[in-house]
């Protein structure tokens, strides 16, 4: 089953390049034509980043070679395999580039409702910034998390708690799950959304990064044969390797056939800024956020939007840390609230917190052989927009233009049978 990709990118800041036109959220509004031009420029900038990868990695490999060759000969003689290891790195980069070419080959016309046309000046393919190269390297690691057997453990800790809650709250023996709608904002490479759709729920992933969108389109719509493709996602890590071969070990993907969704599945991906696209009140039975809420400039806006778009009785399921993406970025609004403060805001909006775990240990795109490993001590919660509070909330909202406080007792489970 093909997964529909729709773009709603207008006015989307996308992956900001410091100083670039998409960087400043408060940038001056421009005409629709200018918006379209900037959007096209942004699209081609990311395509160029995919194309530039090999050159960028080869520069790093050459630098490593130069450094080693600058050592005294007697030191170099101690490690005759270093040169061949570096040659292997180079080959792995060439291979990664082939996969990246496959991804962009399938990206140019990927959206059902928009074509990005030709680049304004085809001669202007410039070297990409370090910022874009870092994004691309992270995207490669995202393949491990979402679509490889190696990532299974990580997915079990991050995605399974969310999936299990969806199944507990909307069990297939009590609900027609094909009418239960789940939105996954910041869907990354789409695995969580795909798993939810596989269980029969209506599921829509939303994502604004072209790095992620190009790659998820490739996996979801162009990959069929299990473990038929190879990537070398760790070649960019020059430090903290126990063995040289750890740096060049492959991962295979996809670990499942992404096209094996039932034919009647309702699964889509929408490109664009979550805050700008999802404005329709009372639309979703469930919003599932995983490693997402800390991407906000103002996380209260996320809480407000999720409150608004959930149907009365709908639930918000969240798992993730609070590694605020815009912290320390010049010229960017970034409000770094503690979980305690976010919780206060949620309760003031009227959310009823039904499940809460403040210490769920997970990793994110972990290199399991690295000598440096991060563990996130995540919060996990299920918060309900109560059905019985809704009318009070609407009134309060209109009268005071501020969120209502939770007042009435909670209604269990049956609020949003669809
Ligand atoms: C840390 S990643 C998590 C991805 C995925 N949920 C996972 O757990 O692997 C956050 C994702 O949110 C996306 N994102 C950030 N801000 C967004 C926004 N305003 N609208 C849509 N997506 C956004 C980023 O591009 C990124 O892919």
Automatic annotation (TrEMBL):
One of its GO terms (cellular component) is cytosol. Keywords: Cytoplasm, Methyltransferase, Nucleus, S-adenosyl-L-methionine, Transferase. Residues 409-418 have a biased composition (Basic and acidic residues). It comes from the Eukaryota. Pfam families: CARME (PF07942). Its EC number is 2.1.1.22. GO terms for biological process: carnosine metabolic process; methylation. SMART domains: N2227 (SM01296). Signal peptide: none annotated. InterPro entries: CARME, SAM-dependent_MTases_sf. It is found in: Cytoplasm, Cytosol; Nucleus. GO terms for molecular function: carnosine N-methyltransferase activity. It is an enzyme of class 2 (transferase). Residues 1-23, 394-418 are annotated as: Disordered. Belongs to the carnosine N-methyltransferase family. PANTHER family: CARNOSINE N-METHYLTRANSFERASE. N-methyltransferase that catalyzes the formation of anserine (beta-alanyl-N(Pi)-methyl-L-histidine) from carnosine. Anserine, a methylated derivative of carnosine (beta-alanyl-L-histidine), is an abundant constituent of vertebrate skeletal muscles. Also methylates other L-histidine-containing di- and tripeptides such as Gly-Gly-His, Gly-His and homocarnosine (GABA-His). This is Carnosine N-methyltransferase. It comes from Scomber scombrus. The lineage of its organism: Eukaryota, Metazoa, Chordata, Craniata, Vertebrata.
């Amino acid at each position: 089953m093909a997964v529909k990709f729709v773009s709603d990118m207008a006015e989307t800041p996308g992956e900001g390049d410091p100083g670039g036109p998409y960087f400043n959220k408060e940038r001056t509004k421009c005409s629709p034509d200018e918006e379209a031009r900037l959007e096209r420029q942004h699209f081609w900038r990311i395509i160029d980043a995919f194309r530039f990868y090999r050159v960028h990695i080869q520069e790093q490999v050459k630098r490593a070679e130069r450094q080693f060759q600058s050592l005294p000969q007697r030191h170099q003689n101690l490690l005759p395999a270093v040169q061949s290891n570096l040659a292997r790195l180079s080959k792995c980069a060439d291979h990664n580039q082939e996969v990246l070419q496959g991804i962009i080959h399938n990206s140019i016309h990927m959206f059902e409702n928009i074509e990005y046309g030709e680049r304004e000046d085809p001669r202007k393919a410039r070297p990409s910034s370090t910022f874009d190269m870092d994004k691309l390297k992270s995207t490669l690691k995202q393949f491990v998390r979402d679509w490889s057997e190696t990532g299974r453990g990580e997915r079990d800790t991050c995605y399974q708690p969310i999936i299990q809650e969806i199944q507990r709250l909307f069990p297939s023996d009590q609900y027609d799950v094909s009418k239960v709608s789940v939105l996954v904002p910041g869907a990354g490479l789409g695995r969580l959304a795909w798993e939810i759709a596989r269980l029969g729920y209506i599921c829509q992933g939303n994502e604004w990064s072209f790095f992620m969108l190009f790659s998820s389109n490739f996996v979801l719509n162009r990959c069929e044969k299990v473990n038929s493709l190879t990537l070398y996602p760790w070649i960019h890590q020059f430090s903290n390797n126990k063995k040289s071969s750890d740096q060049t070990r492959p991962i295979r993907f996809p670990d499942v056939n992404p096209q094996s969704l039932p034919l009647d599945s309702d699964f889509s991906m929408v490109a664009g800024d979550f805050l700008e696209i999802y404005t329709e009140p009372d639309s979703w039975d469930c919003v599932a956020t995983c490693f997402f809420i800390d991407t906000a400039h103002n996380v209260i806006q996320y809480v407000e939007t999720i409150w608004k778009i959930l149907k009365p009785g709908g639930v918000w399921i969240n798992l993730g840390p609070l590694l605020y993406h815009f912290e320390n970025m010049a010229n960017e609004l970034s409000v770094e609230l503690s979980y305690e403060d976010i919780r206060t805001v949620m309760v003031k909006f009227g959310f009823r917190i039904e499940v809460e775990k403040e210490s769920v240990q997970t990793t994110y795109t972990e290199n399991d052989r690295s000598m440096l490993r991060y563990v996130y001590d995540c919060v996990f919660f299920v918060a309900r927009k109560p059905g019985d509070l809704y009318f009070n909330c609407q009134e309060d909202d209109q009268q005071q233009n501020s969120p209502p406080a939770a007042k009435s007792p909670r209604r269990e489970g049956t609020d949003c049978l669809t």
